Amino acid sequence: MQGKGLITIVAIILGLICLNELLPTWYANKVENQANALAGDDPVKYQKELERLAGDTLDLGFTELHYTKAKEKEMKLGLDLKGGINVLLEINQRDLVNNLTNYSTNPVLLEALDRTDQAQKNSTKPYIENFFEQFQIVNKEKGTNLKLADPEIFGNTNLTEIKFNSTDQEVQDIVSKRIELSTGTAYEVIRTRIDKMGVTQPNVQRVPGTGRISVEMPGVKDIDRVKKMLQTSAKLQFWEVQELPEVFPYFQQLGTLVSVKADSIGVPKGTNFDNLININSLQTNGVANVKLSDTAVVNKILNSKIAKDARPSNIKYTKFEWGYKPDSGNEGNLVLYAVRGNINQKAPVDGAVETANISYDELGRIVVDMQMDSKGAKDWATLTEKNVGKPVAVTLDNVVYTAPNVINKIPNGRTQISGSFTQEEAQDLVNVLGAGKLPAGAKIVQAEVVGPSLGAESVSSGMWSFAIAFLIVIIYLIVYYGGAGVYAVIAMTINLFYLMGIMDSVDATLTLPGIAGIVLSMAMAIDANVIVYERTKEELFAGKNIKEAYNEGFKFSLSAIIDGNITSLLTAVVLYVFGTGPIKGFAVTLGIGILMSMFTCVLLTRVLIFNRLNKGKGLSVWTAFSKNLFRNTWFDFIGKRKYAYIFSGIITVIALASILTQGFKFGVDFNGGRSYVVRFDKDVVANDAQTSLQNTLINKEGEESAVDVKTFGTDNQLKITTDYRIDEESLEADLDVEKKIFEGLKSYLPKDAKIESFKDSGADNYGIISSVKVGPTVADDIKKGGVLALAISLVGIFLYILLRFKRWQFSTGAIASLVHDSIVILGAYSLLKNVMPFSMEINQDFIAAILTVLGYSINDTVIIFDRIREFLQEKKSLTLKALFNDSISSTLGRTFNTAFMTFLVILAIFIVGGENLRGFMFALLIGVGFGTYSTWFIASAVSYDLLRKRGGKKAIAKLEPEDEKERS
């Protein structure tokens, strides 16, 4: 065989590379398992044993393994396997534009920004593109003829490269570049903060074309701390403070307005503003002392248009900001401060911190000492000199940390932040300040949290599903193909080894969908062996000897294998480009698995088989059970196509009717909102819990929010989805939702249940074990991305089939079958959404399942089309109908074996793989069944009818006219 030596060398080198990549993972797990065995369930003892064992070194001769280095290089596990948090941060693009315009108050600019904010809610374009469009619209409507280079827009000292005569296009290019650079700066700041937290194997990536940054931190347990760290912009500012005597008359006026216009403001009738602000208990330089539960109502009143319009001139630009946390001895309240603002809301001192460290004041309380840079020091000296004897507020991200009275001028730029810090809070603040400030505010627009207990269960269920699927494939291959099946198992095992090694080498993260991708790629990899072996059987039945049969089997199967794998690879690429998070993991494993199967199952298997045959040894390609299965099997597929059309027509009509009348149940990643999986220490009735939560999750207008509660897997687990505070992406909103859910479920929890334990299911046998938050803008992006991915996949497959088979009729037939399969699956999810005992939501996972089905189904179709092309040359006397029937019938063995094995593998994952994968696998089960059917009765039948109308076999080959006589 040509190239035998090269293939062997490549296989050995690839194997050594993969071994070198996987050894650190093996060793790190070995040490941790030893420490766990010695420590039992004692976490303190486990840490001590781990530190002791970490000092050991394993010398393998060609390399030495150290635990610390091995831990750094081990394979990354996604948060669904390890627990942790995955967030999508969005940098506030409006803040960036404001900064570049030097906080201009030009009315055209401000209106353009307001319109851009609205346009972004229904747009997938970058913010800055929408801004330029809206600016031109407003500019034209008002007839102002402002240029972007105007000093009141971008022609200021912040953008010195813009000249007075710069064209709008030149300014757009400069501003877009600066926005991109600012997002890059934000990425570096975020990454530095995470490094300072000491998180193991974080994954921080920019999302191309957006102002978003994806952060995955497996193993993290203090979720609230992480969210706060990521969203803090570190915008340290110093402001003058207005005290109560200046503000009190305005508060009196507000008290009257609220009593009269409560409905217009949006607060309940009878709201007493004077009682809310509670100024009699005030002990600081603030202007109000508000109960924590009342802060949202006070915010709503102060930010209402009625309240803003009523402001007197002395507080026209005042910023009302809350204290960092309740003061000692005042735990149930939060102080409200009045910060003296100005027309552009630019702080007198916008601190650029050079150094920050933890210190202690004269009373032994923890404080943060800071040293400003030269400009900050100069501004600070001016501010303190001006306000001797008066209070000055130190704010970070519009939260007041401290507001002490200035004793004297501070000329050296040194200052101190106090705020009843814990050691951890002070360290986080030092880390944030030390990492630098974000160029603009950041908010979490999408978040997924998985508790450690659920992660451990996912690993267990994933491994079990993998083991069972692997065993099923091994048994089936050996039972069906005998000795040749053994070589297929060897190739599959090597393929798996290569797949894991390459994933580790490219720093890919293994996720639960990734494990599903590995198992599925394993099943699809066997397809190459099945194609070869089925063709080899045909050659043996034709009277050829064993070597000739195998040679012909590999030779004539290569085209079909390449075509089938390229279409599947195209699906994997589309999934990777348009997917996010776990879907990318699925796409990566599927893509690498397909590429490796081409090498192991086609090239390496051939080397191994011919190495045996060249030694004069035989190699069976069947067993007594399978020898005559599907041999000489023939069925009139084309003759029965009308019955198939009727059946498919009925199924399609039912599916479309359900889709149009009942619709779908969309997941939070398509609708937006928050979803929580909650575990209880006893069984809970979902409907009862839903009623309880509806009475708790009431919005500020007094209306019930949408709540959906379903049993999730077992009867002691619920999946709770709500749109309560859906438009708010702050940490405060997250905490409020969690608190309300805790209150609504309290009657189903242990009597001594605390909210801290409820939010950390790793501590007890109850609580939130996973959560997902998706903002409405991100949900729209995901939905549009999913539709685009489907469209691109269909177009790509159509073009590839057209390229390979030269006739649009084949492409149209293939696409018809794929559309048919998609409608059937969508119809099933619409019809059964309230019937099945597992999630039937339309979400990102579902889109991945649809695309996987398309790749699988087209693989089958390509095999038949390839056989039609071959028979055109070998069986020229056949009619078009006979040509199609013979081609389909001759590939029945291959189609059945591949479909049956794939079905068994998916069924194993469906049963054992865990609740999170059931909906995904159910779509694949339907897809495999109907995909096989549609290959025979839709793709082939539609192609046949289209070709028959265009002249039969003459439409695909230059044959004699009398060869095409069939017209039925």
From TrEMBL:
Residues annotated as domain SecDF P1 head subdomain: 352-440
Biological process, per Gene Ontology: intracellular protein transmembrane transport; protein targeting; protein transport by the Sec complex
Mitochondrion keyword on record: no
Coiled coil region boundaries: none
Any GO MF annotation of the entry: protein-transporting ATPase activity
Compartment(s) where it occurs, according to its Swiss-Prot or TrEMBL record: Cell membrane
Topology of this chain in the membrane: Multi-pass membrane protein
InterPro entries noted in UniProt: SecD (IPR005791), SecD/SecF_arch_bac (IPR022813), SecD/SecF_bac (IPR022645), SecD/SecF_CS (IPR022646), SecD_1st (IPR048631), SecD_SecF_C (IPR048634), SecD_SecF_C_bact (IPR055344), SecDF_P1_head (IPR054384)
Domain of life: Bacteria
Chief location: membrane
The keyword Transport belongs to this UniProt entry's keyword annotation: yes
Stored SUPFAM superfamilies: Multidrug efflux transporter AcrB transmembrane domain
Positions of transmembrane segments: 462-479, 515-533, 554-579, 585-609, 643-664, 785-803, 810-831, 846-865, 896-914, 920-944
One GO location term (cellular component): plasma membrane
This protein's UniProt keywords: Cell membrane, Membrane, Protein transport, Translocation, Transmembrane, Transmembrane helix, Transport
Described function: Part of the Sec protein translocase complex. Interacts with the SecYEG preprotein conducting channel. SecDF uses the proton motive force (PMF) to complete protein translocation after the ATP-dependent function of SecA.
Family, per entry: Belongs to the SecD/SecF family. SecF subfamily. Belongs to the SecD/SecF family. SecD subfamily.
Oligomer and partners: Forms a complex with SecF. Part of the essential Sec protein translocation apparatus which comprises SecA, SecYEG and auxiliary proteins SecDF. Other proteins may also be involved.
Protein name per Swiss-Prot or TrEMBL: Multifunctional fusion protein
